[in-house]
Amino acid sequence: QLAQKYDPQRERELRAWIEATTGRRIGDNFMDGLKDGVILCELINKLQPGSVPKVNEPVQNWHKLENIGNFLRAITRYGVKPHDIFEANDLFENTNHTQVQSTLIALASQAKTKGNNVGLGVKYAEKQQRRFQPEKLREGRNIIGLQMGTNKFASQQGMTAYGTRRHLYDPKLGTDQPLDQATISLQMGTNKGASQAGMTAPGTKRQIFEPALGMEHCDTMTIGLQMGSNKGASQTGMTVYGLPRQVYDPKYCGGPELFGHDGYDG
């Protein structure tokens, strides 16, 4: 797949540019002619003199690898981005000629940006650095850009505080129109006119009655028989919890009025 991405037309353009810049012929096989690193070092020295002070004669493999490494470090200092640079083995061991071609095109683009006459590559845009006053930077903190999303001009205008009482109404029931923005319309749901009017506080005493027994209906505090009945029983005469009570039998003793205050018959 990498071989399929290799562009022969780009190779011809790179060959013409390198040979014109260095004054040396690469040879029939483009990549083999660059493998010793000599022409590459001469290329970067032409673009930026002194980039590679010493170019090794290609006697042994380590000489060639050292030349390629010196070239890669030099073009990094020249401005080629690290992610555009091939590794030494991509060229020396023929593992990725496509990346080697991409690196040389990136070098040509950097040379064109620096003002060299190069017929390939692209000219990079110049860096436009802007400086803002501190007060402008502080103002920008109060603005939410669209990359953060938008609420489509929605707001919380008219919203009531949490827990505020709001009135439910239905125009069909003839209830009064809402007086303020605290009213909930029917799209929020309805209680069908029900209310808590007449409800007593929890724990309030309520009277139990039965109309059939003639018991009087007293007030709204009365509990109907659907709540159950105590059959007329009450707590009349009950003493407070904890008070002592005297137990007696009329067969063995008289009523309480027969005894004096000291507890003996008198």
Automatic annotation (TrEMBL):
Top-level taxonomic group: Eukaryota
Signal peptide positions on this chain: none
GO annotation terms (biological process): actin filament organization; actomyosin structure organization
SMART domains cross-referenced by the UniProt entry: CH (SM00033)
Keyword rRNA processing found: no
Record SUPFAM superfamilies: Calponin-homology domain, CH-domain
Keyword annotations of the record: Actin-binding, Calmodulin-binding, Phosphoprotein, Repeat
Gene3D superfamilies on file: Calponin-like domain
Pfam families: Calponin (PF00402), CH (PF00307)
Cited InterPro entries: Calponin-like (IPR050606), Calponin/LIMCH1 (IPR001997), Calponin_repeat (IPR000557), CH_dom (IPR001715), CH_dom_sf (IPR036872), SM22_calponin (IPR003096)
GO cellular component terms attached to this protein's record: actin cytoskeleton
Keyword Transcription carried by entry: no
GO MF annotations, alphabetized: actin filament binding; calmodulin binding
Domain Calponin-homology (CH): 8-111
Entry-linked CDD domains: CH_CNN1
Family: Belongs to the calponin family.
Function of the protein: Thin filament-associated protein that is implicated in the regulation and modulation of smooth muscle contraction. It is capable of binding to actin, calmodulin and tropomyosin. The interaction of calponin with actin inhibits the actomyosin Mg-ATPase activity.
UniProt-listed PANTHER family: CALPONIN, CALPONIN-1
Name of the protein this chain belongs to: Calponin
